[in-house]
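Tip: read the tokens left to right.
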């Protein structure tokens, strides 16, 4: 079933994937159809509704969390534009695989470009554009994404985090206003 992502089967897969209502069901679909990706490790969570155009060029390690609106881009279309401009077929498409290590979280709205390896124990901040490899034990953010910290430091900070999303909206709003009042009184 692996292929270049063209054809009616690919179109059906992408449309079907978009209408799967929950992250859990989309993840189950991926596990049921593991052959669509190069590799799918244990404990993948896949929130995006957009199915990658070249899933066979994507490899996920174990314990990988992909937040909503993340896109995996395995190729570009520059060659098509150049071939039309110069009325030739000498420009070849460029692209590459995307490898995600173990224990990785990719934040909402991030874009992962071709020929990139994201190491193990890595956090990619929301909205980042990953254009080159991110080493193991890193926290990366930005456009383009750059290493801004290390994984172990983030883990220690998160251990001491006092606000818990599961405490409910009222508690989150209370904490939100308390933080602002402290800043104003300084």
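Filled-in amino acids:
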């Amino acid at each position: 079933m692996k292929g270049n992502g063209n054809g009616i089967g690919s179109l059906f897969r992408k449309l079907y994937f978009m209408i799967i209502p929950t992250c859990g069901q989309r993840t189950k679909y991926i596990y049921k159809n593991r052959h669509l990706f190069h590799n799918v490790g244990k404990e993948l969570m896949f929130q995006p509704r957009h199915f990658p155009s070249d899933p066979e060029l994507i490899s996920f390690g174990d314990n990988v969390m992909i937040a909503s609106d993340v896109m995996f881009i395995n190729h570009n279309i520059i060659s098509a534009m150049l071939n039309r401009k110069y009325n030739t077929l000498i420009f070849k498409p460029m692209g590459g695989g995307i490898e995600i290590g173990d224990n990785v979280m990719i934040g909402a709205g991030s874009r992962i470009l071709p020929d990139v390896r994201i190491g193990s124990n890595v956090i990619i901040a929301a909205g980042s554009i990953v254009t080159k490899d991110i080493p193991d034990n890193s926290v990366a953010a930005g456009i383009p994404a750059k290493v801004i910290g290390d994984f172990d430091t983030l883990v220690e900070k998160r251990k001491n985090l006092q606000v818990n999303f599961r405490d409910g909206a009222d508690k989150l709003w209370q904490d939100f206003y308390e933080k602002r009042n402290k800043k104003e009184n300084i």
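Helices lie at 8-19, 23-32, 78-85, 151-159, 169-184. Residues 51 and 103 are 21 Å apart (CA to CA).
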